[in-house]
């Protein structure tokens, strides 16, 4: 649970930064590369703020998916959907880390701080994804038998040592 909470707090920093940028109508990231004034030409009136509010929403979705990973799934499809989303967000953060850090090293545009932020974010998301996977597999009934209550394997189907008891 600590990894999930750390991931939520880390994502919350991103969301807070994007709220500030949306209210100011600015492009970019806190600690990210410098944004040229020409970049604003691609946006109409109010569209910069709208784009940043979209980024706020994406951060909130990431936080929700991190929380959803703590659900005790009884069906495979919801589990796979949450696991897929975790993996997608982890990949996006990793690509952001490589892109921002690499761009900062190769050019003079800046962005190394946000690249480092993305690297930590990717690690937190990866660890949360691993926990989702481990948690789901740890809760599955032993031996593939479905118990009728309590998640226990019926006594007649329990395996003791190398011998199947019946």
TrEMBL record:
Keywords: Membrane, Transmembrane, Transmembrane helix
Transmembrane annotation, as ranges: 50-69, 81-106, 112-129
Taxonomic superkingdom: Bacteria
Full protein name: Uncharacterized protein
Organism: Nonomuraea diastatica
């Amino acid at each position: 649970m600590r990894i999930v909470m750390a991931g939520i707090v880390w994502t919350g920093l991103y969301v807070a930064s994007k709220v500030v940028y949306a209210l100011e109508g600015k492009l970019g990231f806190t600690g990210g590369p410098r944004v040229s004034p020409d970049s604003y030409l691609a946006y109409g009136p109010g569209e910069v703020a709208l784009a940043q509010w979209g980024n706020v929403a994406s951060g909130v979705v990431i936080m929700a998916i991190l929380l959803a990973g703590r659900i005790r799934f009884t069906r495979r499809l919801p589990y796979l959907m949450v696991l897929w989303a975790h993996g997608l967000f982890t990949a996006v953060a990793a690509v952001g880390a490589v892109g921002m850090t690499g761009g900062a090293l190769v050019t003079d545009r800046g962005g190394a701080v946000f690249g480092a932020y993305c690297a930590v974010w990717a690690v937190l998301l990866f660890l949360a994804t691993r926990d989702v996977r481990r948690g789901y597999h740890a809760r599955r009934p032993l031996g593939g038998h479905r118990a009728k209550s309590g998640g226990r394997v019926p006594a007649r189907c329990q395996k003791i040592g190398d011998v199947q008891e019946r």
